[in-house]
Automatic annotation (TrEMBL):
It comes from the Eukaryota. It comes from Pistacia integerrima. This is Uncharacterized protein.
Length: 433
């Protein structure tokens, strides 16, 4: 049963910055985000239904972002700790340094969508000075295919993670139907376990799940460590290589109802469907661009929101192969996702860097690594009261153009892969319940 629950942004009592204690050090993860080879920013693009008034935006920021201490604090050198940084509250924040309104010659812009794409890509080439709170917002009063204007928000990752920012954004919004009320999200109501689940078989199943959790965690952590130490290597593909700082952001939307149709037909989750589409889309892209010879090699078998940086990672294997039955990708994705859910690999990857940094320092975390050229966040786009863009799920791709020179072609392959999976699911018949 689903119930609606108001969105609340809760402070973390263990977070020193939210307690406004002046001069306390940055967390180890926040310090790691400042390393020269780990310069990390979060970029958010928001489409507006109307043109933006910069003065109205500034007035809103005073009551929203500046209420969060990290958005009005400097990160300065901590003289008591070698290489350390600490938070220092800035009494006054000059919003003119943070709200950027470029002078646009609209008449000479042939493609507004391409202009916004280029503008955001250029933001990835530059950083924000540490002499000011490390965030800014760019207001582009330019009509695109999806919006009347676009706001681009950029924040250094040391200020918080994606969940923190999403919580902040949602907590600052209000219902269209009731402007004084915060938005609500569906929450699954917990069902009390039946008496049969409390008996012998119920306890046996719980014990088995605990054993499965420990076994999966042991295997995944071992693979994680072996891969991190380069004892195990992935198959070489044209997509692998060192990432540059320049990124290009592209997106493609599909119907959320169609995604749910596949989910319900195949008895999976939305995440399973998205992972399957990702795997199938990558296979199509590589096959088109690099041909069959390379693929022959690659086909060998082998919550409560709290502010801060709480990032964990896990290794998710993608099998690069063209399938006769598109549903095979979905079956594999579901099996892998179910196994990863029954593992503490992400928790291990979150706590282990903190331990290494504590005993070895931030610089001890530097090592030669090979990263994927593509990041695969999946954004569930919700636009209440705006039917043309509501009920969509959007692929957001952040790509290195040196490795992926044609990201829109990759979007086409993702869209085509989803279409094939949907058609295959429909051919298998709708669920009876």
């Amino acid at each position: 049963m689903e119930v609606l629950k108001p969105i609340e942004l809760k402070l973390d009592v263990e977070d020193p910055i939210q307690n406004c204690e002046e001069g306390l050090p940055l967390s180890p993860i926040a310090r790691l985000c400042h390393q020269p080879d780990s310069r990390i920013y979060i970029i958010v693009m928001i489409g507006m239904k109307t043109k933006m008034n910069p003065e109205v935006i500034k007035a809103s920021l005073v009551h929203i972002f500046l209420k969060q201490p990290r958005f009005c604090s400097l990160q300065v050198e901590d003289e008591t700790v070698k290489g350390g940084l600490k938070w220092v509250n800035q009494k006054e924040v000059n919003l003119d340094n943070h709200v950027i309104v470029p002078n646009l010659d609209i008449n000479n812009i042939e493609s507004p969508d391409k202009f916004v794409e280029d503008y955001v890509s250029n933001l990835s080439k530059t950083g924000i000075k540490m002499s000011m709170p490390m965030w800014d917002i760019h207001l582009l009063n330019l009509k695109t295919t999806d919006a009347e204007s676009v706001a681009v928000f950029r924040v250094h990752h040391s200020l918080g993670d994606g969940i923190s920012l999403m919580s902040l954004f949602l907590a600052c919004t209000r219902k269209i139907s009731s402007p004084n009320e915060p938005p609500t999200i569906p929450m699954v109501k917990k069902v009390n376990p039946s008496k049969s689940s409390r008996g012998f078989w119920g306890k046996f199943i719980k014990l088995w799940l605990v054993i499965l959790l420990f076994w999966n965690t042991l295997v995944d952590v071992s693979m994680f460590i072996a891969t991190s130490l380069s004892l195990l290597n992935d198959t070489k593909t044209p997509l692998k290589g060192p990432l540059s700082q320049t990124r290009r952001f592209v997106r493609r939307s599909v119907s959320l109802d169609d995604v749910k149709l596949v989910k319900n037909t195949m008895n999976t989750t939305i995440n399973d469907v998205m992972q399957a589409v990702t795997q199938a889309g990558l296979s199509r892209y590589l096959n088109r661009k690099y041909g069959v010879l390379e693929l022959d090699v690659m086909m060998k078998k082998g919550s409560k929101a709290r502010w801060g940086n709480k990032m964990g990672y896990l290794f998710y294997p993608f099998t690069i192969a063209l399938r006769d039955d598109p549903i095979d990708c979905l079956r594999e994705a579901k099996a892998t996702m179910d196994r990863k859910k029954a593992s503490l690999e992400a928790s291990f990857s979150y706590f282990s860097p903190k331990c290494f940094i504590k005993f070895g320092g931030v610089k001890g975390q530097k090592k030669k690594s090979v990263f994927w050229a593509i990041q695969w966040p999946i954004l569930l786009q919700v636009a209440m009261g705006h039917p043309p863009y509501a009920n969509k799920i959007t692929f957001i791709l952040s790509v290195d153009e040196g490795i992926i020179p044609d990201p829109n072609q990759l979007c086409d392959d993702l869209e085509e892969s989803f279409s094939l999976i949907k058609s295959a699911a429909i051919a298998k018949g709708m669920p009876t319940n």
